[in-house]
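Q: What residues go here?
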């Protein structure tokens, strides 16, 4: 709020209150001129109106309301830019409540602090909570079933940009990730881009014009292998996707692949540690880990086996 607007608001508010006080004073003063019971107006020959003062208790209610209003304006924000002596804001109240809820959460899950992420992912109670946390914090981007969408990776498959070990998943969620694929259109020109589109298509076993693909392969080895690997299987350290598995982050149609190569892609996964805290990030990492086929295969112990 600009300072001038703040002053205007404060003046209007105070003028309103002063107006109410004046109105009260004026009406009570007017009535004292007449003796109680004296009539002031007569209509239709016999309808008379008395001008009695307001009942005392009623008057006092008005006065109390005004006093309360003034007190409120001193303590809480209401007079334009004046913040009130309590320094209360909606945001600070919300933050305090969130802080309390956060502490209660940390306390409740303190006993799980020493557990490994693998063990945590097997704990049904913890995973129920984690599922809710996921719905609240992650589903907007990754989908409520965690299967992702164009530009947002599927978290339920075994195909990882940044790694599927519990520790790698934890780091992804805690610190966030930035996937950066440079734009190659300006470097390669349209012909070069077509060659690489053809070669990338053959990498995942699709048919493509052989000559184009052959020329693309040479380009790939010089320009792309540094990130995607000489065999095109990607690089977890850079978040460079595997191009041989026919799983596509940005779409697998020829047109999508052309856009990826021509214009590049930038993708951001926001880090959550500061916002959610250690306990929630650990729960979420264990949850994401539990979604991947990795644990599904290892989960049911053989009959008779004793788990440690
Ligand atoms: C604003 C959207 C957004 C939100 C919210 C978000 N993510 Fe992501 N996430 C992404 C994007 C985009 C990527 C892919 C980054 C890249 O391309 O390198 C990603 C990547 C990931 C990965 C790495 C996948 C892989 O293949 O390595 C994991 C794990 C992940 N997110 C988990 C989560 C969890 C858990 C949450 C909730 C706390 C969450 N994300 C919230 C957008 C989001
Ligand atoms: C600096 C490292 C780097 C280089 C060099 C690079 N890429 Fe990429 N590429 C990436 C990253 C990282 C992504 C994922 C972007 C994201 O997270 O959204 C990607 C994504 C892609 C995709 C989209 C994959 C999908 O699943 O949708 C294609 C196709 C691709 N790159 C092809 C190429 C080709 C062809 C070249 C060589 C001309 C190349 N890349 C060079 C890092 C690189």
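A:
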């Amino acid at each position: 709020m600009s300072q001038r607007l703040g002053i205007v608001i404060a003046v209007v508010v105070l003028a309103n209150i002063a107006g109410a006080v004046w109105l009260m004073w004026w009406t009570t003063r007017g009535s004292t001129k007449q003796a109680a019971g004296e009539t002031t107006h007569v209509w239709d020959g016999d309808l008379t109106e008395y001008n009695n003062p307001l009942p005392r208790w009623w008057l006092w209610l008005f006065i109390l309301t005004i006093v309360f209003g003034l007190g409120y304006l001193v303590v809480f924000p209401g007079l334009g830019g004046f913040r009130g002596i309590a320094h209360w804001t909606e945001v600070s109240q919300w933050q305090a409540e969130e802080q309390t809820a956060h502490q209660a959460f940390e306390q409740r899950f303190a006993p799980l602090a020493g557990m490994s992420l693998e063990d945590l992912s097997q704990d049904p109670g913890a995973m129920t909570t984690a599922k809710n946390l996921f719905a609240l914090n992650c589903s907007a981007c990754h989908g409520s079933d965690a299967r992702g969408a164009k530009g947002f990776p599927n978290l339920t498959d075994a195909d990882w940009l940044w790694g599927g070990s519990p520790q790698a998943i934890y780091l992804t969620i805690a610190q966030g990730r930035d996937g950066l694929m440079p734009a190659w259109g300006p470097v390669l020109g349209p012909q070069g881009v077509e060659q690489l589109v053809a070669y990338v298509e053959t990498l995942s076993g699709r048919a493509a014009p052989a000559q184009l693909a052959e020329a693309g392969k040479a380009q790939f080895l010089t320009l792309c292998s540094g990130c995607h690997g000489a065999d095109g299987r990607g690089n977890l350290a850079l978040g460079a996707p595997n191009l041989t598995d026919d799983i596509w982050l940005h779409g697998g149609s020829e047109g999508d692949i052309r856009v990826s190569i021509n214009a590049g892609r930038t993708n951001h996964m926001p880090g959550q540690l500061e916002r959610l805290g250690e306990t929630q990030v650990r729960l979420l990492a264990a949850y994401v880990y539990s979604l991947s086929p990795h644990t599904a295969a290892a989960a049911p112990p053989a009959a008779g086996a004793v788990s440690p």
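A: Context that may help when evaluating the design: Residues 295-308 have pLDDT under 50 and may be disordered. Residues 137-138, 140-142, 151-153, 155, 160-162, 169, 172-173, 177, 179, 239, 267-270, 272, 284, 288 surround heme C (ligand 1) (CB under 6 Å).
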